[in-house]
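ok so I'm stuck.
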Amino acid sequence: MWPRGYNSAFLLLGLLALTYVLIAALLMIFEERLIFHPRRYPAGNWNPSAIPFEDVRFTATDGTNLHGWYVPHEQPRAYILYCHGNAGHLADREFLLRILHDHIHATVFIFDYRGYGRSEGRPNEAGVLLDARAARNAFAHQAKITPADMILMGRSLGGAVAVALAASEQPLGLVLESTFTSLPDVAATLYPWLPVRWLLRSQFDSLTGIQSYPGPLLQSHGDRDEIIPFELGRRLHAPVAGPKQWITIPGGTHNSTQSAEYYVALADFLHQLPGSAAPVPTPAQDRLP
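replied:
not stuck anymore, here's the structure
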């Protein structure tokens, strides 16, 4: 018979092991709720007066009804398909749309993944990627262009979506902000004490996908990003063999607003793309909203 102290120690170890298994099980059960944080219509400003936009309804190949905004420019010097991050919805990006329209002189298509904003359904990795392909088709139809004419632009999780699109069909250019190599890589830094690489069903494996994309690439990352480590961004940037540019955002955290200097660099990147029809104006830093 074990001494009483040993029994207490075994009981404590058993409770710790049970707690560990329970946390791992909860991570698996609620995985998609931990990844995706949608905001639903009607929360937010769905009638912004500062940008011209058209509501666009379109459908993914699995029948899910989706919603986006088409923001046309009278004399577009770029066509940008924007993939937002894992939280909120498209109406939360009015500030960004104003910059892209008014200062970059771009025609923009921004859309909500399933379960976000006015889009139906519930988000998951496979569904979100279907939504992005449907948005690319809807944008091409709306603007009367081809995917090869588009700039794919994505932030955070939206960067992984943009990489998946770029890997499947070559765009004119790719712009990534604060994104990652893969979702398990991010989870492993946030939960180093859990076997997340074995537990996660969602992968968003951008490191593999980007190896099918030759460039051009503009990528930025804050050097104080507390959610997606700066080093993951650098690792994602490395495999691209073609024209590419890296921008470090000094002091930038994950949700920091991009600086005026960044948008100057973005304008210059767009101007240098092959087949660019006209110079993209450099946004005056003192006139950015």
